[in-house]
TrEMBL record:
Its cofactor is FMN; NADPH; Mg(2+). The gene is fni. Substrate binds at R3, K4, Q148. It comes from Enterococcus lemanii. Its main location: cytoplasm. This is Isopentenyl-diphosphate delta-isomerase.
Amino acid sequence: MDRKDEHVSLAKAFHKPKENSFDDVRIIHQSLPGSRCQETSIQTTLFGQTLATPFFINAMTGGSEKTGHINQSLAILARETNLMMATGSISAALRDPSVADSFKIARKELPNGLLLANIGAGTTLEEAKRGVDLFQADALQIHLNAPQELVMPEGDRDFTQWLTLIEEIVTHLAVPVIVKEVGFGMTRQTIQQLLNVGVQTIDVAGSGGTSFTQIENARRKKREFAYLNDFGLTTIESLLEANEIPMNFGLIASGGIRNAFDIFKALCLGADAVGVSGVILNHLMVNELEDTIALIKQWQQELHVLYTLVGAKETLDLKKTPLLLSGRNKDWCDARNIDWTKYSLR
């Protein structure tokens, strides 16, 4: 089986909505929100672009005939619901032009929408430029996935040039660059390293959803690395880390998003936008495309209600929402010297 097809099959097999760090974030209710649902705007701004909706379809797949059909459906979904979309890693298309159509189909179905191309952190500037041009991308995602590569039987083992290559791309590429994790989260130290080399938009992409160490371990004969299935920082822990950085930058949260309430909580914790992958992919694979379009439209309607619930007229207002952190989130704050009480005193 093609590796990309195998990834999709395993992601579907392992997908089960489960408890995660979002469950330990509570909204502190205010009885007089003073707001009106019809006046709320769920728009947000990211790398200078206005997004009609504060969540988007994050990087998933591509590189085979089967995954090309999935990208086509995802692009139609994005078009019909006015979402930004990221392709899966285009590295395969840069190596083998015969699979490029499995990614190009996204731009064909989404001619006027925002489309992000995705590459690995070991990619050169020249390859990044080729990828952006090939898919007419509005921005470039560079993914960080060291744990996945190390568990992957055929994965990379040398990460010494990653930061240097990222800096070169950020400095010379004509479109905005987003650096994202793939489900292992980020500490404030990692975020600061990226900001120091000029990165302006970061997707902390924590654990809690699809586990690529689990997927890659399932592809190994002996499956030696089961203890890394839940490796990394959660999305909430990563957002808490990001909030400790005294610099302004575009902050994206992804990893473990299950519904509109998770999106809402991530926005309350400082995210400018939220990437959704696994739950959309799974819904699309077990339902009709029309059903998934209806789900996304339902989430958009729910967000208007949730904004009104806390008196927010726009997305930026959500960062003032008082929150109560408990469980592992509070433990993380205590261990990492983060004042968790400031969230409840907003």
